[in-house]
């Protein structure tokens, strides 16, 4: 029986995948910013005006969703400037580098990695440090080891408290680890009829075949 919906993974980079529900939700996350020029008829849309015709004066502080910030941001015209959310600033990067495993990442932002990657679209002198923090050992790699270890050692246990501190990408990794363990347990007990290739491997094979065919 075919599924009604096939989940689409997030873009995991500076560009979103708009077929991904995770990326759609992530693009609604708010960014602090500032109007570098007057914004005609946008005050109401940004929750700061009484009517649809109100304008935002230059210098106004903003809290705007990521998708709108990307649309308005232009380094040449200077329509808006974007500030770093506090969880990506140096103080928090220091906490992550000390021990990323103690941080409740879901509380800090349910799409911490995806949202952090999107920040690289904006001009910021701290972009190299942000990329280093979210992708290197200070955060992702050190947490990844613990997540996968936990997913393999919490079989048939209540894991709600364990996953509550993970961001959405980490929760997906945890579920993938548990599914892999469960599939192996079923195969080992003779409860699986056959071992099949993962969807990632199948899609990769189809893509390579298409490239050769072309």
Automatic annotation (TrEMBL):
CDD domains: GINS_A_psf3 (cd11713), GINS_B_Psf3 (cd21693). It is found in: Nucleus. Residues 89-187 form the GINS subunit domain. Pfam families: PSF3_N, Sld5. Residues 20-72 form the DNA replication complex GINS protein PSF3 N-terminal domain. GO terms for cellular component: GINS complex. Keywords: DNA replication, Nucleus. Its main location: nucleus. Coiled coil: none annotated. It comes from the Eukaryota. GO terms for biological process: mitotic DNA replication initiation. Belongs to the GINS3/PSF3 family. Component of the GINS complex. The GINS complex plays an essential role in the initiation of DNA replication. Required for correct functioning of the GINS complex, a complex that plays an essential role in the initiation of DNA replication, and progression of DNA replication forks. GINS complex is a core component of CDC45-MCM-GINS (CMG) helicase, the molecular machine that unwinds template DNA during replication, and around which the replisome is built. PANTHER family: DNA REPLICATION COMPLEX GINS PROTEIN PSF3. This is DNA replication complex GINS protein PSF3. It comes from Ramphastos sulfuratus.
């Amino acid at each position: 029986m075919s599924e009604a919906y096939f989940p689409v993974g997030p873009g995991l980079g500076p560009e979103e995948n708009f077929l991904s529900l995770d990326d759609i939700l992530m693009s609604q996350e708010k960014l602090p910013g500032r109007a570098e020029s007057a914004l005609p008829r946008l005050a109401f849309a940004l929750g700061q005006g009484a009517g649809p015709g109100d304008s935002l004066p230059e210098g106004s502080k903003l809290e705007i969703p990521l998708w709108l910030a990307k649309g308005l941001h232009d380094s040449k015209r200077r329509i808006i400037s974007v500030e770093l959310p506090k969880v990506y600033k140096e103080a928090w990067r220091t906490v992550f580098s000390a021990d990323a495993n103690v941080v409740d990442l879901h509380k800090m932002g349910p799409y911490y990695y995806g949202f952090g990657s999107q920040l690289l679209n904006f001009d910021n002198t701290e972009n190299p440090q942000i990329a280093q923090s979210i992708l290197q050992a200070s955060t992702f790699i050190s947490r990844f080891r613990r997540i996968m270890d936990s997913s393999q050692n919490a079989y048939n246990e209540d894991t709600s408290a364990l996953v509550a501190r993970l961001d959405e990408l980490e929760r997906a990794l945890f579920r993938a680890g548990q599914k892999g363990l469960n599939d192996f347990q079923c195969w080992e007990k003779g409860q699986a009829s056959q071992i099949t290739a993962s969807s990632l491997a199948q899609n990769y094979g189809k893509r390579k075949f298409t490239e050769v065919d072309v």
